[in-house]
Amino acid sequence: MNAPLRVLVLWFPDWPMRAALGGAPPHPPTALVQANTIVACTASAREHGVRTGQRRRVAQGHLSSLQVLPHDPARDERAFLPVLQLIEKHAPGVTLLRPGLAILRARGISRYHGGEAEAAASLATVLGEAGFPEVRIGIADGPFTAEIAARGPTPWTVVPSGTAREFLAPYPVQVLRDEQITGLLLRLGIRTLGEFTALAAPDVRDRFGEHGARLHALAAGADSRPLTPRPPDPELVRSVEFDSPLGGADQIAFAVRQTADAVMLALGEASVVCTEVRIDLTDDNGAVFSRSWLHPTCFDASDLVDRVRWQLEALATQSAKEPIDEARAFGGITAVRITPAAVDDAAHHQPGLFGSGTDERLHHAVSRVQTMLGHQGVVTAAISGGRWLADRQVLTPWGERAVPPRDPGSPWPGSLPDPLPAEVFHPPRPIGVLAADETTVSVDERGTLSQDPARIEGASVQAWAGPWPVHERRWAAGGGKRGHRLQIVDDQDRAWLVFHTGERWWAEGRYR
Question: Is the peptide bond between 411 and the residue preceding it cis, with omega within 30 degrees of 0?
């Protein structure tokens, strides 16, 4: 068996709060909100019961004086770039996992300082003197164990080689960060990683698939042992050259989107995923700027584009000697090359499909279709808030996280209760709702029908209910959007949801 990979993880607690508020903690009670949900909060806010994942109104119920700010992930990244540069000066090879969390191989720096504890103490001292006294450092076998160690109460924690399983055993299964599997484990009465690792590995694989087996290995502290990287196929490398040098980070990131999709398609055809990637940027003077990036699981196309953007921002910051906004232009880039440096079997990273176990073909097939149709060609649906059916559906390109523009958990007076129509017309389609004398049924200001509905879409009306008023944005010029809904069942056993606005009827949806 290969020796475990010793890594050093640096964790900066509550980094999004520091990026938003500036300066070292303590900070006043403050929380960051995205989609009306708390995504980060200060330690002083947690003392009053505020937690990440809470709805905004619940958090403010715990602390009425809570300051609430919008979350800006790009700000977190920009603020962390100078920290990465500082670490790089004292420990070359540092890799960003996410803003506030960095990782590097422990071997080189520990040899330089004469031991792992001495290396952690040196880094903690350097960062403390630079204004980051809150940093926590963990050294262990593999990234997962090292990150758990870094979250300990002391400035640094060293887990001796070969003792990761014993170190992780008392931790709750929630540290695996997989809601589906940890929820099932809790229902089975398995609450700690030690209890999880007590299960036989073949039984875990049979029940949870390869993804569950991977989590089982993590819980046993074996996440570094299988890291004998397969040599990447040279055909997995993709590059793009620009006719004229590009200077804006967003402009270049947009231009490499198709290249990133092509890398994912090549990986999919080879039935592998990328766990480490090297990105080479070539400027208009012929200089090449390279950097390797690690991922705790595996990269997707959006991750690759993000790494290109982060590398461009770091390059611009280094040349300007000060943090800059990502939209600011800098020296032109003429080519970008993306090289998978380490790959792994795709089956180890695929979640179950509809509860039927792993299906490694899912990601490959969808990625290939998306590459052929374009970034917007394959989308996933998420539920958003709203009064109209079309407002409650948000379509997001495959591989990106869906962020509903409106909170689906908030009350929406006038919205349609369950069950909802199975078919939604977007945009609504015009439809005729006629009375017995073939005249169009109308609705007056008081919500009263002029006549009973008799025909709809060429069929006879068997039953109907309503109308119900829907009126939103009353304060807007022109009185906002208003109308009246009606449910109609015709003699062909079709149930319609229609609404009347102005002088016309529109079909909003149809029940099946």
Answer: no
